[in-house]
Design brief:
This protein is mainly alpha-helical and 502 residues long. It is built from 17 helices and 4 strands. It has helices at residues 2-53, 59-93, 99-117, 119-128, 138-162, 168-183, 191-224, 229-255, 265-291, 298-304, 306-339, 360-377, 382-387, 394-413, 420-441, 458-463, 469-501, and strands at 54-56, 342-343, 442-445, 448-451. A two-stranded antiparallel sheet has the order 1-2. The longest helix has 52 residues, at 2-53.
């Protein structure tokens, strides 16, 4: 009897395990299907908004505009799904923000950056690389832009599926170049503009890494390896956050005028300085109130960096929205402008009576599409940037996000479509390699540093490596392949589309 009972209990346990497995599988499948369903709802809204804005146009042009809006929305969803790691990966990897909270913050700031400051880069992607004047007719130009968006979106979707953070900027510009050559010739591409953009792809990750490493060295010298760490934090943390707030305010005031003239130019600089001072004063009081419960140690400093890291993560999301929205809607804006469609002026709904270069609904497709992609599909790649390259702490993550945000905002102000992926990953590697160099050169003793003797043993030096080289090689390989892959795919799609339409 006892053995029979024992056997019965084991079978019940196995059945319960099977039921639990099927329940978990059903829940995971339900999340995927609900995400796909919400994505389809968003794409339907993109088509509806495009149809609503057209006041008088031929049916064929209306169908082209609706198709272009849906494809731009699909591109925006993929950008949000892939590039989320750049914005919140370091903060999540440092365990300062939960994944859900980080996604919500990023989605809000992404939309704000795209709507308020995305005009400069959109104009570069939409007309400065490949122009309607370089093709025989407007239909060929529209066909090229449609296939460029499809090719870039498919490539990003594939990269997200395999878990590789590729550059969405590389993807769309590669798609435009490939489709432009297929539509006209090699001479149709503005190679001067393309070369300038390509140069930033090489310079920007190096610059992001150098800035992040310099910030890490500064914090080591001024906060981590001083006698009174808490007093140093009381001085430097409010100063850093105040300077960041002032510079960011100036950027918004000077660069958001194409969407909303919030303040006159003569008042922008004094108001930015005032905002920076208020942030410095307020956060100085916050830091002072936290110091009473903390000991004079490096671990206490990590707790003090929680709020600055959250602020810089939000700022990076704003910068990403301002720059990478062009990757989603640049071709759509070019199609709208090339067709000379009669559209309702929705910009007046947002408080601006001035005629904008890019219709506000076009920017909204990219802004809300990126945010939807973040929330629905953005969890997959966070661990790649946040955890698989090098170990992150709040201090290291702060240096990475601040360096990335500063570099991206500078490029956005200049109208250069840089790769946020390149800069963010370059900053992660910059901090990781700096830590390697610092660890191999110095030994911390009693809160100070003593120079380490050179180690000749190769195995010992290998154990001290803090950056995973396999991650470096795989990410760089994906970066190299992206432009030619997207260009080739766009050229093939253009020819296939032309074959079926003719």
């Amino acid at each position: 009897m006892l053995s029979n009972k024992h056997i019965d209990t084991k079978s019940i346990d196995k059945d319960l395990e099977r039921l639990g497995f099927f329940g978990d599988a059903a829940e995971a499948m339900g999340r995927r299907l609900s995400g796909l369903g919400l994505a389809l709802v968003f794409l339907t809204l993109c088509v509806a908004v495009a149809a609503f804005t057209v006041t008088s146009v031929e049916l064929s042009d209306a169908l082209i505009l609706a198709s272009a809006s849906a494809i731009a929305g699909y591109m925006a969803l993929n950008i949000g799904a892939n590039d989320v790691a750049n914005n919140v990966g370091p903060a999540v990897g440092a365990r300062v923000l939960s994944l859900t909270g980080a996604l919500v913050i990023a989605a809000i700031c992404e939309s704000a950056g795209a709507l308020l400051a995305g005009g400069e880069v959109v104009s570069t992607v939409s007309r400065d690389i490949f122009s309607p004047d370089d093709v025989p007719d407007s239909f060929s130009f529209v066909q090229a832009m449609l296939t460029a968006m499809v090719a870039a979106a498919l490539w990003i979707n594939f990269a997200t599926y395999v878990g590789t953070p590729v550059s969405t900027t590389h993807s769309i510009i590669g798609g435009i170049v490939g489709a432009g050559i297929a539509a006209s010739s090699v001479a149709a591409i503005n190679w001067t503009t393309f070369s300038a953009i390509a140069a930033t792809w090489v310079i920007s990750p190096v610059l992001g890494g150098l800035v992040a490493a310099a910030l890490m060295a500064f914090i080591n010298a001024r906060l981590l390896y001083v006698d009174d760490k808490l007093e140093a934090a009381r001085f430097w943390l409010p100063a850093l956050l105040g300077a960041l707030g002032g510079v960011f305010s100036a950027y918004v005031f000077f660069k958001a005028t194409d969407r909303a003239s919030m303040v006159p130019d003569w008042l922008a600089l004094p108001l930015s300085l005032a905002i920076g001072f208020v942030i410095w004063w307020g956060y100085r009081r916050i830091v002072a109130s936290q110091l009473y419960d903390l000991e004079n140690s490096a671990r206490a400093l990590r707790d003090l960096f929680t709020i600055p890291l959250m602020v810089t993560a939000a700022l990076l999301s704003f910068a990403h929205g301002a720059n990478d929205v062009a990757n989603a809607i640049g071709p759509l804006a070019a199609i709208v402008q090339s067709q000379s469609l009669e559209l309702q002026d929705l910009s007046t709904w947002f408080g601006s009576a001035e005629e904008t270069r890019v219709p506000i609904w076009v920017t909204a497709v990219g802004a809300f599409g990126i945010s939807a992609g973040l929330l629905l599909f953005g969890r997959r790649l966070v661990t790649v940037v946040g955890k698989k390259i090098t170990k992150l702490s709040p201090i290291r993550a702060f240096c990475i996000t601040l360096a990335t945000a500063a570099t991206v905002l500078t490029a956005s102000g200049l109208g250069l479509p840089v790769s946020t992926t390149h800069i963010a990953v370059g900053a992660v590697f910059g901090v990781g390699f700096y830590r390697e160099w610092h660890r191999n050169r110095y030994i911390p003793e009693g809160g100070k540093l003593r120079q380490r003797k050179f180690v000749r043993n190769r195995e010992e030096r290998r154990r001290r490596l803090l950056v995973r080289r396999t991650a470096l090689f795989s990410i760089v390989a994906a970066w190299i392949v992206t432009v030619p892959a997207a260009a080739l795919l766009a050229a093939v799609l253009y020819n296939l589309l032309g074959y079926f339409w003719t």
